[in-house]
Give the backbone structure.
Amino acid sequence: MPPIQRENYRAAARAALRDATLQRALADVQGRLGPGTAAAYRDLKEGPALRRQAHDLRMRAVENLDILLERLADRIEARGGHVHFAATAADAVAYALKVVRQHDVRRVVKGKSMVTEEIGLNAALEAEGLTVTETDLGEYIVQLAGEHPSHIIAPAIHKTRAQVGRLFAEKLGMAYTDDPAKLTWAARAALRQHFLNADLGVSGCNLACAETGHITTVSNEGNIRMATTLPRVHLAFMGMERVAARLEDHDILLRLLARGAAAQRMAGYVSYIGGPAAGDQADGPEAFHLVILDNGRSRILADARFREMLCCIRCAACLNVCPVYGKIGGHAYGATYSGPVGAVVTPLLSGVHRFADLYHGETLCGACKEACPVDIDLPRMLLELRAIQVAGDAAWEGRGASARERLFYGAGAFMTCHPALYRTAMGLASRARKVWSLNGALRRRTPVLAGWTRTRELPPVAATSFRKRWQKDPEDKSPRFGAPGGKR
Ligand code: SF4
């Protein structure tokens, strides 16, 4: 993936808009999952109040993370598991490599995990000479294609079955087919050997519970259960915010997670894991390690404007309703997390200035908040990020508006505070309109406004100002200025 810069987002978004296959795939996923999630919420016997309750219990957990994480770690360690608190991505990767060497691991199978994408785990393990196999079908497809996931829960949503058929023919040596059942069976047969030969299973963690001391994994394919029980060692990664205080809270979140993620009442496979296999258990790993990752989350926790972002349970419901994600897809965001959640969390984790296009690119329509199972106010935080970028904030690397922008808006503010100057400027603009608007070509004549006028016509300044019209005839009922047929 190229380094993420403003230009990449814009170029990648433009390329995505031209990709007819991607447009069909995005419309399909949003057409199915968006309305499906809304229907699944309506189905809740507690109604919308449950989402609000989930928000409150998540906020309480986030505000008590230090206590809850210690409790979780103590309970896992009491069962013989190992818990490592990683301050950074590099620290988490270093611990993973230590585990690999300690247990003499050669082959790794993985369940889908966005946190391991965030820390770049696969590349680090492969650089160590290990074989790493993704076992979620979508992740397996993007891994074979040498790509990254484009959706949090549907990683290969950007691929058609014909593309998958050609990929499997090339990589798995099978005859070409675009039959989904045959493709799935081929993946299953290939993955089965990897499961049986692996020394280490790596998973993420959808939720955790401090009261019981367990992590929870959720899947619809059963692959995570196999990846975490067949190999000798299980290494799990969790963002430090994922813990719930009580089992009762955890179960509310689990119900909402399934609805938000896939419009289901419950996922097909839910596993609670609290350590290595106990002496009387037939299945399970000999060793269990949990890495609890900070990697910028403490900074989010410390800022009351953004703390709410740590309530996120990464269900992807906001992606499935976002009009921007629905047009540009996940890769255009250029980072692990895409859609509205990515537009907030990526700048917070990786640089408010560097990722400015992400939060400026969202529409603030509010659909994400409506879809979020824990009622996170993403639009408010998108605005907070824009405010930081304009006003500057050294704590978040917000550099403030450019000199040109400050000059432009400063001049506008000065003019509106000085009526005589404002009237003179409007009079000049009204005369200039005759030159600028020849053939309606204003957009081509104003390069400084090209970002706006490339795709929109800027109406020319009216010949008669509103002020003059008002003075002349306060009862004037003609259409608004600039509207077709209005008095000019
Ligand atoms: S912000 Fe809400 S809807 Fe989006 S991924 Fe997080 S929990 Fe799901």
